[in-house]
């Protein structure tokens, strides 16, 4: 049975009710790109704004619920921070022991094929993204892989886009996938259910990654247009 179409008046009222919530991404992105605050600061500002909206504008949130919300957020953040702390320690050990330089030299001696080396680096970044947070992974792999990729003739823009996409995909890929844990916690669903739902996006993301990596013009056309 086909649902009845909502009238313009109903749609307008629904929009007005949703408008305060819809301003959250505007505050986040506008603040970041406007240079008003950093991404971390934007998250804090958006959280305070959402709290004010929930308590005093839409009134969907009750004062007595705030403590349980803070407690739940603290538990979720603590779980993620433990993962990030372990990943940061791992990156520190790798860097201090100069393992990155050894691996870079080994990779260049392994094969002369650019395609094979890029695929190996892509695989390594995807696996790293499954276990490390993006900042720790960048600390670890930029000194490891960037000299290799530059030696292969790739430009820095393509390298930056490739590495960022790799790690972004890894962050939603099991068995760890830090962002996947966060999403499952927010949605209040089992981690295994989140894994099933995310797999089509992981596969399509890898396909797009391959296209962007081996067709540099896709990531370079705008900087080239601006003469950067």
TrEMBL record:
Keywords noted in UniProt: Cell inner membrane, Cell membrane, Membrane, Transmembrane, Transmembrane helix
GO cellular component: plasma membrane
Classification via InterPro entries: DctM, TRAP_DctM
Stretches assigned to the TRAP C4-dicarboxylate transport system permease DctM subunit domain: 4-218
Subcellular location, record wording: Cell inner membrane
Keyword Cell membrane belongs to the record: yes
Transmembrane annotation, as ranges: 14-36, 42-58, 70-94, 139-161, 167-186, 198-218
Pfam families, sorted: DctM
Coiled-coil regions listed in the entry: none
Protein source organism: Leucobacter insecticola
GO MF annotation, one: transmembrane transporter activity
Protein name: TRAP transporter large permease subunit
Principal location: membrane
Membrane-topology descriptor: Multi-pass membrane protein
